[in-house]
Fold this protein.
Amino acid sequence: QVQLVESGGGLVQAGGSLRLSCVASRRTFSSVVMGWFRQAPGKEREFVAGISWSGTSRTYADSVKGRFTISRDNAKNTVYLQMNSLKPEDTAVYYCAAGTLQAGTPQYGSWGQGTQVTVSS
């Protein structure tokens, strides 16, 4: 079981930036893929970004490409989501997730409690 704790959420104006952080247990952090998901009111949880254990492979949802950047610092057991040019539609609870690659596909099985991001217009 991977322990994940998100932080960095808050209220920001449209066009602004936030950086989310997720601290994972040291024992398993470097051995798993990490990702960010979000869930807006009345909507399904959606994938936002993912990163391999080495940080060399990153992927993004189309809705955030060019605006969000996922990164990780294994020395700090932390994964980040830098969010720029925020839009009101980015408002959601953001969840950090950890998983393993199965048949080359990330399978996320551990989840944080979430951090609220609210973008005002």
